[in-house]
Amino acid sequence: MTEISVQELAEKLQKPNSNLQLIDVRELDEVLIAKIDGFQILPLSQYSQWSAEISLNLDPDAETLVLCHHGMRSEQMCHWLRSVGFTNVKNIVGGIDRYSRLIDPSIALY
Protein backbone atom coordinates (compact mmCIF):
# COMPACT_ATOMS: atom_id res chain seq x y z
CA MET A 1 0.00 0.00 0.00
CA THR A 2 1.44 3.34 -1.03
CA GLU A 3 0.93 6.03 1.60
CA ILE A 4 1.32 9.78 1.81
CA SER A 5 1.71 11.86 4.97
CA VAL A 6 -0.46 14.85 5.79
CA GLN A 7 2.64 17.01 5.43
CA GLU A 8 3.14 15.73 1.88
CA LEU A 9 -0.57 16.30 1.19
CA ALA A 10 -0.28 19.91 2.39
CA GLU A 11 2.68 20.46 0.06
CA LYS A 12 0.76 19.02 -2.90
CA LEU A 13 -2.29 21.18 -2.12
CA GLN A 14 -0.08 24.29 -2.22
CA LYS A 15 1.01 23.54 -5.79
CA PRO A 16 -1.50 23.68 -8.64
CA ASN A 17 -1.69 20.21 -10.18
CA SER A 18 -4.55 19.65 -12.59
CA ASN A 19 -3.79 15.94 -12.76
CA LEU A 20 -4.15 15.33 -9.00
CA GLN A 21 -7.35 13.50 -8.01
CA LEU A 22 -8.58 13.88 -4.42
CA ILE A 23 -11.18 11.49 -2.99
CA ASP A 24 -12.83 11.66 0.44
CA VAL A 25 -14.66 8.44 1.37
CA ARG A 26 -16.24 9.69 4.60
CA GLU A 27 -19.97 10.01 5.16
CA LEU A 28 -21.72 13.26 4.24
CA ASP A 29 -22.42 14.09 7.91
CA GLU A 30 -18.68 13.80 8.61
CA VAL A 31 -17.86 16.10 5.69
CA LEU A 32 -20.28 18.69 7.09
CA ILE A 33 -18.21 18.74 10.29
CA ALA A 34 -14.75 18.86 8.70
CA LYS A 35 -13.48 18.98 5.12
CA ILE A 36 -10.55 19.90 2.95
CA ASP A 37 -11.51 21.83 -0.17
CA GLY A 38 -10.98 20.14 -3.50
CA PHE A 39 -11.87 16.59 -2.49
CA GLN A 40 -14.54 14.69 -4.37
CA ILE A 41 -16.90 13.05 -1.85
CA LEU A 42 -17.49 9.33 -2.50
CA PRO A 43 -18.86 7.81 0.73
CA LEU A 44 -18.07 4.11 1.01
CA SER A 45 -21.64 3.48 2.21
CA GLN A 46 -22.85 4.72 -1.21
CA TYR A 47 -20.47 2.44 -3.12
CA SER A 48 -23.29 0.98 -5.22
CA GLN A 49 -24.23 4.46 -6.44
CA TRP A 50 -20.82 5.54 -7.76
CA SER A 51 -18.64 2.44 -8.24
CA ALA A 52 -19.81 1.42 -11.71
CA GLU A 53 -18.79 4.75 -13.23
CA ILE A 54 -15.60 5.51 -11.31
CA SER A 55 -13.32 4.76 -14.27
CA LEU A 56 -15.43 7.08 -16.44
CA ASN A 57 -15.32 9.96 -13.94
CA LEU A 58 -11.69 9.64 -12.84
CA ASP A 59 -8.43 9.00 -14.68
CA PRO A 60 -7.06 5.58 -13.66
CA ASP A 61 -3.49 6.76 -14.35
CA ALA A 62 -3.60 10.09 -12.50
CA GLU A 63 -2.17 10.47 -9.01
CA THR A 64 -5.13 9.74 -6.72
CA LEU A 65 -5.04 10.59 -3.00
CA VAL A 66 -7.69 9.08 -0.73
CA LEU A 67 -8.84 10.54 2.60
CA CYS A 68 -11.06 9.42 5.47
CA HIS A 69 -11.19 10.16 9.20
CA HIS A 70 -8.14 8.18 10.35
CA GLY A 71 -6.95 6.22 7.29
CA MET A 72 -8.74 2.87 7.50
CA ARG A 73 -11.63 3.42 5.07
CA SER A 74 -9.33 5.23 2.68
CA GLU A 75 -7.01 2.21 2.75
CA GLN A 76 -9.95 -0.01 1.74
CA MET A 77 -10.74 2.39 -1.09
CA CYS A 78 -7.12 2.36 -2.27
CA HIS A 79 -7.14 -1.45 -2.45
CA TRP A 80 -10.40 -1.39 -4.42
CA LEU A 81 -9.17 1.32 -6.82
CA ARG A 82 -6.07 -0.74 -7.56
CA SER A 83 -8.24 -3.80 -8.18
CA VAL A 84 -10.17 -1.92 -10.89
CA GLY A 85 -7.05 -0.64 -12.64
CA PHE A 86 -5.99 2.59 -10.93
CA THR A 87 -2.20 2.73 -11.04
CA ASN A 88 -1.15 5.66 -8.81
CA VAL A 89 -3.24 5.53 -5.64
CA LYS A 90 -2.06 6.75 -2.23
CA ASN A 91 -3.66 6.49 1.19
CA ILE A 92 -3.44 9.65 3.35
CA VAL A 93 -2.06 8.34 6.65
CA GLY A 94 -3.94 9.60 9.71
CA GLY A 95 -6.75 11.08 7.61
CA ILE A 96 -8.43 14.39 8.22
CA ASP A 97 -7.93 13.97 11.96
CA ARG A 98 -4.14 14.10 11.63
CA TYR A 99 -4.37 16.84 8.97
CA SER A 100 -6.35 18.99 11.41
CA ARG A 101 -3.98 18.30 14.30
CA LEU A 102 -0.72 18.87 12.39
CA ILE A 103 -1.51 21.09 9.41
CA ASP A 104 -4.75 23.08 9.72
CA PRO A 105 -6.22 23.44 13.22
CA SER A 106 -9.14 25.44 11.77
CA ILE A 107 -10.57 22.11 10.58
CA ALA A 108 -12.83 20.72 13.29
CA LEU A 109 -11.95 17.54 15.15
CA TYR A 110 -14.63 14.94 15.73
Layout of SSEs?
Blueprint: E1 3-4, H1 6-14, E2 21-24, H2 28-33, E3 40-41, H3 47-50, H4 54-57, E4 64-67, H5 72-83, E5 89-92, H6 95-102
Description:
The protein has 110 residues and is an alpha/beta fold. The chain has a single domain (3-102), classed as 3-Layer(aba) Sandwich (Oxidized Rhodanese, domain 1), CATH 3.40.250. It is 39% helix and 15% strand. It has six helices and five strands. It has helices at 6-14, 28-33, 47-50, 54-57, 72-83, 95-102; strands spanning 3-4, 21-24, 40-41, 64-67, 89-92. A five-stranded parallel β-sheet has the order 1-5-4-2-3. Helix 5 links the parallel strand 4 and strand 5. The longest helix has 12 residues, at 72-83. The N and C termini lie far apart (26 Å).
CATH class label: Alpha Beta
Q: What global shape is seen?
A: globular
Number of domains: 1
The CATH H-level homologous superfamily: Rhodanese-like domain
Short structural summary:
The protein is α/β, with parallel strands linked by helices and 110 residues long. It is 39% helix and 15% strand.
Name a few traits of the molecule.
5 strands, alpha/beta, 110 residues, globular, Oxidized Rhodanese, domain 1
